[in-house]
């Protein structure tokens, strides 16, 4: 479940849970997750991680989510790997 809210500075954020809540005891060691779940806060320019977090985060007000976001740890923002469009002049033969 994802939520959107606007913080006190006017930035729009989306927040959602990340991580596995259950670990299968019979799973191969490389597929078991020991990392605790966390909340991801993402805006157009930032990403933040919060762990641990309140179980009822999804019922919090925008102001309460803003307070959680403010204490969340900054994370690197993944950039799109979409290739840049080719320049129009690069396609024309030189004469």
Topology:
Elements: E1 2-6, E2 12-18, E3 38-42, E4 47-50, H1 62-71, E5 73-75
Antiparallel strand pairs: 1-2, 2-3, 3-4, 4-5
Give a verbal description of the structure.
Residues 76-95 are annotated as: Disordered. The chain is α+β, with helices and mostly antiparallel strands. The chain has a domain at 2-19 and 32-78. The protein contains one helix and five strands; from the N terminus they run ββββαβ. It has one helix at residues 62-71; strands at residues 2-6, 12-18, 38-42, 47-50, 73-75. A hairpin with a 4-residue loop joins strand 3 and strand 4. It is globular. The model has no long low-confidence stretch (mean pLDDT 81).
Main features:
95 residues; alpha+beta; 5-stranded antiparallel beta sheet; 5 strands; 11% helix; 25% strand
**Fraction of residues in helix:** 10-25%
Q: In angstroms, what is the radius of gyration?
A: 20 Å
Cα shape: globular
Averaged pLDDT: 81
Number of strands: 5
Q: Report how far the terminal alpha carbons are from each other.
A: 58 Å
State the gist of this model.
Residues 76-95 are annotated as: Disordered. By secondary structure, the chain is of the alpha+beta class.
């Amino acid at each position: 479940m994802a939520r959107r809210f606007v913080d006190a500075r006017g930035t729009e954020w989306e927040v959602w849970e990340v991580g596995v809540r259950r670990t299968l005891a019979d799973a191969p060691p490389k597929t078991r997750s020991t990392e605790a779940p966390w909340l991801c806060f993402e805006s157009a320019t930032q990403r933040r991680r919060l762990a641990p977090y309140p179980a009822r985060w999804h019922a919090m007000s925008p102001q309460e989510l803003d307070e959680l976001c403010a204490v969340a740890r900054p994370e690197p923002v993944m950039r799109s790997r979409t290739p840049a469009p080719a320049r129009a002049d690069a396609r024309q033969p030189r004469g």
